[in-house]
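Supplementary Methods, section 5.1.

A reviewer requested that the exact input to the structure prediction be made available. We therefore reproduce it here, unchanged from the version used in the analyses.
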Amino acid sequence: MHCWPELERFGKTVDLPGWAQPLFLYDSASDGSTIESDYYPVILIHGLGDEADSWRHLFPLLAQTHRVIAPDLPGFGRSAATGGMTISRHADALQALLRKTGKAILVGNSLGGAIAELVSFRDSALVASLILIDGGLPTRGKLTLSLLASLIPGVAERGYRAWRKEGADAYGSLAPYYAELENLGEKDREFLRVRVQDRVASEGQCRAYCSSFRSYLRTALFAQGKFARRLSRSRVPLLVIWGDTDRIIPIASRASLLALRPDATAETISRCGHLPQQEKPGETHAAIERFLASSGR
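The structure derived from this sequence is encoded token-by-token as follows.
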């Protein structure tokens, strides 16, 4: 799986203490040109069925002031994994990464938001700030029969493999994640077209996607109360960013998060879907910078 060209020089595979498999990540310190900074590093955690390249436009903006690290979660992109992946196992890998980096700012999109929350619940001393982008738990979503059916082993896998029949259909499956997919630049669209075809062709990513999806759905169904209690007790500074036209997790869903943390900062990105870091990186970066300036970097 190829890298976004402007990020390629930052890519590397690392061994982590207490984690069996090497992890691929982009690290702004990799090429030796990182700025000297007293600020905490920023770790960017992608969502389900995505990779570190999701942050291709936000990464260089944040790297102007911080060391920035964007991993491929285990089983996704260029990171290998053994066995089924769960939110808990993804959090284990992130905690192993934090043992190398020290205290950091966690930024999670979609599923990555729930993973970032879990890491902060387990060891808040290692999390300087928590930034959720169109994700996290608890959130309210519509429960459908197809979602419930996907809990049955093999059902999600059949749906995933079906995308291999037609590359154009696989690319079209990305449309709901954006306010307007075709408004992205031509370079972005071609990159995503190749990327989604590589993704659906991979059995390893199929296993990671489906097991992670089932874990997320089970957590959303049966453990939202636990997340809610732990979030309400958390004192880690919290920023919640949402695209106002998100069709995957609608913006109304974030009310559950904000009700639990009245001290949280909320930012809305206009004319934007589920992936603000791709559609509106400048606005997303500005929202993050405002928050970090007020809460400590």
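The longest strand covers residues 19-27. These observations are discussed further in the main text.
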